[in-house]
Specification:
- It contains six helices and eleven strands.
- The protein is of the alpha/beta class.
- It has a single domain, classed as HUPs (Rossmann fold).
- The protein is globular, with a radius of gyration of 22 Å.
- The mean pLDDT is about 95.
- It binds adenosine monophosphate (AMP).
């Protein structure tokens, strides 16, 4: 059993996002980048399955600029066996990523593809679903528990009504929720070992995939600043303000 895991390089979730003065995008220079958080869960789950003896290889793949190699390298440091970087300059949209991943799946023939449920930079929640459609594979999205059963995968999904448990045939696409597991930290010896693991570099154009963006970003704006609150001295004053100024009662 081979598991392919898609890992995206995004601005670290702790970074305070700043909009460029001309509104043409957000500031990315000198900003800390990290692996998209649910992609860490996806790698962790794949590595756990390998450690349980049920998988023989975990391959991490990222689509993006040269620097996305760091994201692949981090996946190698927490247990992936080898990496693939598909190079694309500039913005790469979910449809292009899923077409690239389709080509990688056709080449590598994995039994499972694990991905994050959503990328925190574009909040699209599309790539896994589009990849499943392109490959005509079953998909289990928002997985919070995964159990491997012979040729089946039992997946628990957290939905509004509670926990939904579904079975999908393998090969399948699974998009992972943050509650799936607790991703491990890379230890220093494993970071050193990961430097020796292979990362194959491929140009998206060599895969015959057109990665040109189809969405034109018109403008990016900061959300309006919240006004400072005020303190009222009495309940009566509060009621008056809610009635006369906020007009909510
Ligand atoms: P999205 O559809 O953009 O919300 O992304 C969902 C998931 O698709 C992410 O959590 C990643 O696992 C995968 N993904 C999206 N973009 C990329 C990328 N450029 N490289 C690798 N994986 C990606």
């Amino acid at each position: 059993m081979k598991i392919l895991v898609a890992v995206k390089r995004v601005i670290d979730y702790n970074v305070q996002i700043r909009v460029k003065e001309d509104g043409s995008g957000i500031v990315t220079e000198n900003v800390k980048m990290s692996t998209n958080p649910p992609d860490d869960n996806a790698i962790e789950e794949a590595v756990k399955i390998k450690e349980s003896g049920k998988a023989s290889e975990v391959i991490a793949v990222s689509v993006g600029e040269e620097k996305a190699q760091e994201t692949v390298r981090k996946a190698l440091a927490v247990g992936a066996d080898r990496g693939i970087l598909v190079k694309v300059d500039g913005i790469v949209e979910p449809l292009a990523v899923s077409k690239v991943l389709q080509k990688i799946v056709e080449k590598e023939k994995p039994d499972l593809v694990f991905m994050g449920k959503q990328a925190i930079d574009d909040d699209c929640n599309q790539t896994g679903q589009m990849l499943a459609a392109l490959l005509n594979w079953p998909q289990a999205t928002f997985a919070s528990k995964i159990e491997l059963k012979d040729k089946l995968l039992e997946v628990t999904r957290e939905v509004d009504e509670g926990l939904e448990i579904i079975e999908v045939n393998i090969p399948a696409i699974v998009t992972c929720d943050l509650r799936l597991n607790e991703p491990r930290y890379a230890s220093l010896p494993n970071i050193m070992k990961a430097k020796k693991k292979p990362i194959e570099q491929i140009n998206a154009s060599d895969l015959g995939v057109d990665t040109k963006p189809r969405i034109e970003q018109i403008k990016v704006e900061e959300p309006p600043k919240r006004k400072a609150g005020i303190k009222v001295a009495t309940v009566e004053e509060l009621v008056q303000k809610l009635k006369n100024e906020a007009k909510v009662i």
